[in-house]
Amino acid sequence: MVCQTVKAGVECAFMTKKGCGFNGGNCYAVIEKCEGCNKIIESASGKFCRVYPDPTAKWSVGGCPTASHVKKAKEEASQKVNPLKASKRAQKH
């Protein structure tokens, strides 16, 4: 349904006929760590996340999984080498 509280006019999964069903009855504004994300929407009452109604909770657990402005470093796992196969390959050359 379309939000009628803080994000007026935006489609929201928590909005029901009885009002906002999220904890506290409304969404919470974004925090500093969210700045630069493309999922931020601006409304008359402030800036809010399009995906999560409480961005503070997502960042307190180690980071927002949908943050578009944060580049996640991929750890390159070193490939394990089987010594028996390596010795056989070396003998062929």
Oligomer: single chain
The whole-angstrom Rg is 23 Å
The stretches of 5 or more residues where confidence is low (pLDDT under 50) are none
Helix-strand sequence: EEEEHH
- With helices defined by DSSP (H or I, 4 residues minimum), what is the helix count? 2
- What is the beta-strand fraction? 5-15%
Q: Structural class, from helix and strand content? A: alpha+beta
Task: Trace the largest sheet across and list its strands.
Answer: 1-2
Major sheet: 2 strands, antiparallel
Overall 3D geometry?
elongated
Overview of the molecule:
- The chain has 93 residues and is α+β, with helices and mostly antiparallel strands.
- It is 17% helix and 13% strand.
- The protein contains 2 helices and 4 strands; from the N terminus they run E-E-E-E-H-H.
- It has helices at 55-60, 83-92; strands spanning 15-16, 19-20, 40-43, 46-49.
- The chain has a two-stranded antiparallel ribbon with strand order 1-2.
- A hairpin with a 2-residue loop joins strand 3 and strand 4 (46-49).
- The mean pLDDT is 82.
